[in-house]
Amino acid sequence: MLPREAGDGPAVDPSTLDIVLWGVLPYVMVVVLVGGLIWRYKYDQFGWTTRSSQLYESRLLRIASPLFHFGLLAVIAGHFFGLVIPMAWTQAVGMSQEFYHFNALLVGGIAGVGTLGGILLLIYRRRTTGPVFMATTRNDKSMYVVLTAAIVFGLWTTLASVFEGEHGHNYRETVAPWFRSLFIFQPDITAMAVAPFSFHLHTLVGMALFVIWPFTRLVHAFTAPLHYLFRPYIVYRSRDHDRNRGRAAGSAAGRGAATPAAAAPGNRTTARRGWSAVGTPDRDTHNR
Predict the structure, then answer these.
(1) Cα distance between residue 280 and residue 6, in whole Å
(2) DSSP secondary structure code for residue 86 in this structure
(3) 3-class DSSP state for residue 142?
(4) Per-residue confidence of the chain (288 residues) as pLDDT tens digits?
(5) Buried b (16+ CB within 10 A) or exposed e, 71-80
(6) β-strands 11-12, 4-5: how paired?
(7) How far is 218 from 51, CA to CA, in rounded Å?
(8) Could you tell me the CA-to-CA distances from 274 to 104, 170, 237, 270, 284 in Å, in that order?
(9) How far does the chain reach from its first CA to its final CA, in angstroms?
(10) Could you give the 3-state DSSP secondary structure of residue 188?
(11) For residue 208, is it left (φ>0), alpha (ψ between -120 and 50) or beta?
(12) What is the pLDDT of residue 249?
């Protein structure tokens, strides 16, 4: 493999550790991720859930959950834009590197802070709410540690770029080419090898997160609830509504006015306790 120039310094040859970390480990991560998802779906479909704790506490959850999830979506979009789209493409449409850098820091910083604030609130809620904490497994605790570390190290690389200014590292010349080269099975190991340690650490923690992903509650992110768009409607009635209908029917019967349902032979009175049947097209067609 050809060496890569690291700035104005000498040529950099990938070491054995670089080959393992940036040429082998990414594909091991993909195999574990895909294989874990297949295994989880085949043998643990009932466990494919977030194990929601909303019934135990909802006040903090209403704040923390949207903050974390919407922040995470913005973070994912930022990673896609920075790693997948080559720098030559943005320059071709007239976007200067300075303008891109400013927007990446602004949007990435806001998204990172929001995501970190959301996950910290979720952890605080889980630790201070008794029933939620009792429902927390060791698996959940490990997942929260790795997930929080990935967010913190990602935010660290973003804030470091702010203080370094124009002398900061341009990851679109190192990390991004390495990332894209993985998809054509020709990993540009030397590109990643010359990146700063902060990017190495963030990448390794990110890969660790994807390795444990299929075996944690994070697996729900791979579920698209498309069946909700096509399932029939469910109509709910309250007990008070049915009770009032029963009283009205009883009053009418006491005055000598029989309801159509009561007048029909073989039908029970509609003034009964509990839930009453709700007329739906399929039920009405079946009873005819």
Answers:
(1) 71
(2) -
(3) helix
(4) 434 444 444 456 889 999 999 999 999 999 999 999 999 999 988 888 888 888 888 899 999 999 999 999 999 999 999 999 999 998 888 888 888 888 888 888 899 999 999 999 999 999 999 999 998 899 999 999 999 999 999 999 888 776 676 667 889 999 999 999 999 999 999 999 999 999 999 999 999 999 999 999 999 888 866 666 676 766 666 666 556 666 665 565 555 544 444 445 555 555 455 455 555 454 455 555
(5) bbebbeebbe
(6) antiparallel
(7) 10
(8) 59, 68, 11, 11, 21
(9) 78
(10) coil
(11) alpha
(12) 59
Coil, strand or helix at 52: coil
What tokens appear for 263 in the block?
């007048």
Tokens of 195: 């990146």
> Do 40 and 48 form a contact (C-beta atoms < 8 A)?
yes
Which two structure tokens, joined as six digits, stand for 119? 């996950």
Q: Are 216 and 145 spatial neighbours (Cβ–Cβ below 8 Å)? A: no
Whether the model clears a pTM of 0.90, i.e. scores above it, the answer is no
One-letter amino acid at 283 equals R
Q: What residue type is assigned to position 72 of the chain?
A: L
* 229: Cα within 13 Å, side-chain hemisphere: 3
Q: Which residues contact 243 (CB under 8 A, 6 or more apart)?
A: 273
Name 192's bridge partners. Answer: none
CA–CA dist 41, 37 (Å, integer): 6
Question: What are the φ/ψ torsions at residue 4 (nearest 5 degrees)?
Answer: -120, 140
